[in-house]
Amino acid sequence: MIAIGSDHGGYKLKEEIKKYLDEKEIQYKDLGCISEERVDYPNIAKEVAKQVQSGDCEQGILICRSGIGMCIAANKFKGIRCTLCHDEFTAKYSKLHNNGNILAIGADAVTVNEAICILRMWIATEFEGGRHEERIKIIDEIEKENMK
Q1: Candidate list 33, 57, 64, 71, residue with the active-site label
Q2: pLDDT at position 147, please?
Q3: What is the pLDDT of residues 111-134, one digit of tens each?
Q4: Left, alpha or beta for 62 (phi > 0: left; psi -120 to 50: alpha)?
Q5: How many structural domains compose the chain?
Protein backbone atom coordinates (compact mmCIF):
# COMPACT_ATOMS: atom_id res chain seq x y z
CA MET A 1 0.00 0.00 0.00
CA ILE A 2 1.27 3.43 -0.96
CA ALA A 3 0.18 6.66 0.75
CA ILE A 4 0.01 9.49 -1.76
CA GLY A 5 -0.49 13.19 -1.20
CA SER A 6 0.02 16.53 -2.85
CA ASP A 7 -0.59 20.18 -2.33
CA HIS A 8 -2.48 22.30 -4.85
CA GLY A 9 0.64 22.72 -7.00
CA GLY A 10 1.07 18.97 -7.30
CA TYR A 11 -2.60 18.04 -7.59
CA LYS A 12 -2.69 17.49 -11.38
CA LEU A 13 0.44 15.31 -11.32
CA LYS A 14 -0.94 13.34 -8.36
CA GLU A 15 -4.07 12.57 -10.35
CA GLU A 16 -1.95 11.34 -13.30
CA ILE A 17 0.15 9.17 -10.98
CA LYS A 18 -3.03 7.69 -9.52
CA LYS A 19 -4.11 6.69 -13.05
CA TYR A 20 -0.78 4.89 -13.47
CA LEU A 21 -1.15 3.15 -10.10
CA ASP A 22 -4.68 2.09 -11.06
CA GLU A 23 -3.44 0.70 -14.40
CA LYS A 24 -0.77 -1.32 -12.59
CA GLU A 25 -3.24 -2.39 -9.89
CA ILE A 26 -1.06 -0.90 -7.17
CA GLN A 27 -3.07 -0.07 -4.07
CA TYR A 28 -2.84 3.41 -2.62
CA LYS A 29 -4.46 5.77 -0.14
CA ASP A 30 -5.02 9.30 -1.42
CA LEU A 31 -4.49 11.61 1.55
CA GLY A 32 -5.21 14.84 -0.32
CA CYS A 33 -5.50 17.38 -1.55
CA ILE A 34 -8.70 17.05 -3.50
CA SER A 35 -8.46 20.03 -5.87
CA GLU A 36 -6.22 22.86 -7.01
CA GLU A 37 -7.54 25.01 -4.18
CA ARG A 38 -4.71 26.24 -1.94
CA VAL A 39 -3.65 24.00 0.95
CA ASP A 40 -0.64 23.98 3.27
CA TYR A 41 1.76 21.27 2.09
CA PRO A 42 3.16 20.41 5.57
CA ASN A 43 -0.25 19.06 6.61
CA ILE A 44 -0.34 16.67 3.64
CA ALA A 45 3.28 15.60 4.21
CA LYS A 46 2.42 14.92 7.85
CA GLU A 47 -0.44 12.59 6.95
CA VAL A 48 1.61 10.61 4.42
CA ALA A 49 4.60 10.37 6.77
CA LYS A 50 2.38 9.15 9.63
CA GLN A 51 0.94 6.41 7.41
CA VAL A 52 4.42 5.20 6.47
CA GLN A 53 5.82 5.63 9.98
CA SER A 54 3.00 3.56 11.50
CA GLY A 55 3.35 0.80 8.91
CA ASP A 56 -0.21 1.27 7.63
CA CYS A 57 1.44 2.00 4.28
CA GLU A 58 4.77 0.56 3.18
CA GLN A 59 5.72 3.57 1.04
CA GLY A 60 4.63 7.09 0.26
CA ILE A 61 4.60 9.62 -2.56
CA LEU A 62 4.51 13.38 -2.01
CA ILE A 63 4.11 16.00 -4.72
CA CYS A 64 4.35 19.77 -4.64
CA ARG A 65 5.70 22.27 -7.17
CA SER A 66 9.38 21.71 -6.30
CA GLY A 67 9.16 18.64 -4.06
CA ILE A 68 11.42 20.40 -1.58
CA GLY A 69 8.88 21.50 1.03
CA MET A 70 7.18 18.11 1.11
CA CYS A 71 10.55 16.38 1.48
CA ILE A 72 11.61 18.64 4.35
CA ALA A 73 8.32 18.20 6.21
CA ALA A 74 8.22 14.40 5.82
CA ASN A 75 11.79 14.03 7.05
CA LYS A 76 10.78 15.52 10.40
CA PHE A 77 9.35 12.10 11.32
CA LYS A 78 11.48 9.35 12.84
CA GLY A 79 12.09 6.51 10.45
CA ILE A 80 11.16 8.48 7.38
CA ARG A 81 13.68 8.70 4.59
CA CYS A 82 11.96 10.93 2.06
CA THR A 83 13.99 11.50 -1.07
CA LEU A 84 13.44 14.16 -3.71
CA CYS A 85 13.98 12.62 -7.13
CA HIS A 86 14.05 14.37 -10.51
CA ASP A 87 15.18 11.46 -12.66
CA GLU A 88 15.46 7.68 -12.76
CA PHE A 89 19.06 7.73 -11.48
CA THR A 90 18.15 9.50 -8.24
CA ALA A 91 15.03 7.34 -7.88
CA LYS A 92 17.08 4.16 -8.22
CA TYR A 93 19.75 5.15 -5.72
CA SER A 94 17.29 6.62 -3.24
CA LYS A 95 16.02 3.05 -2.74
CA LEU A 96 19.12 0.99 -3.61
CA HIS A 97 21.50 2.75 -1.22
CA ASN A 98 19.28 4.83 1.08
CA ASN A 99 16.20 2.64 1.48
CA GLY A 100 13.97 5.65 0.86
CA ASN A 101 10.41 5.06 1.98
CA ILE A 102 8.77 8.21 0.64
CA LEU A 103 9.33 9.60 -2.85
CA ALA A 104 9.02 13.37 -3.31
CA ILE A 105 8.48 14.75 -6.80
CA GLY A 106 8.45 18.35 -8.00
CA ALA A 107 5.51 18.79 -10.35
CA ASP A 108 7.13 21.83 -11.99
CA ALA A 109 10.46 20.02 -12.43
CA VAL A 110 9.29 17.02 -14.45
CA THR A 111 6.76 16.07 -17.09
CA VAL A 112 4.05 13.51 -16.39
CA ASN A 113 5.99 10.92 -18.41
CA GLU A 114 9.19 11.67 -16.49
CA ALA A 115 7.32 11.39 -13.18
CA ILE A 116 5.94 7.98 -14.19
CA CYS A 117 9.45 6.80 -15.16
CA ILE A 118 10.79 8.04 -11.81
CA LEU A 119 7.99 6.28 -9.94
CA ARG A 120 8.38 3.05 -11.93
CA MET A 121 12.13 2.95 -11.15
CA TRP A 122 11.56 3.79 -7.49
CA ILE A 123 8.94 1.08 -7.02
CA ALA A 124 11.01 -1.54 -8.89
CA THR A 125 14.24 -0.93 -6.96
CA GLU A 126 14.99 -2.95 -3.84
CA PHE A 127 17.29 -1.86 -1.01
CA GLU A 128 20.73 -3.38 -1.54
CA GLY A 129 21.61 -3.72 2.15
CA GLY A 130 25.19 -4.66 2.95
CA ARG A 131 27.39 -1.66 3.64
CA HIS A 132 24.37 0.57 3.06
CA GLU A 133 22.56 -1.07 5.97
CA GLU A 134 25.32 0.18 8.25
CA ARG A 135 24.79 3.72 6.98
CA ILE A 136 21.06 3.52 7.60
CA LYS A 137 21.85 2.44 11.17
CA ILE A 138 24.05 5.54 11.55
CA ILE A 139 21.17 7.69 10.32
CA ASP A 140 18.86 5.97 12.83
CA GLU A 141 21.32 6.79 15.63
CA ILE A 142 21.47 10.42 14.52
CA GLU A 143 17.66 10.51 14.72
CA LYS A 144 17.68 9.06 18.23
CA GLU A 145 20.22 11.65 19.37
CA ASN A 146 18.62 14.67 17.76
CA MET A 147 14.86 14.10 17.45
CA LYS A 148 13.58 14.63 20.96
Answers
A1: 64
A2: 83
A3: 999 999 999 999 999 999 999 999
A4: beta
A5: 1
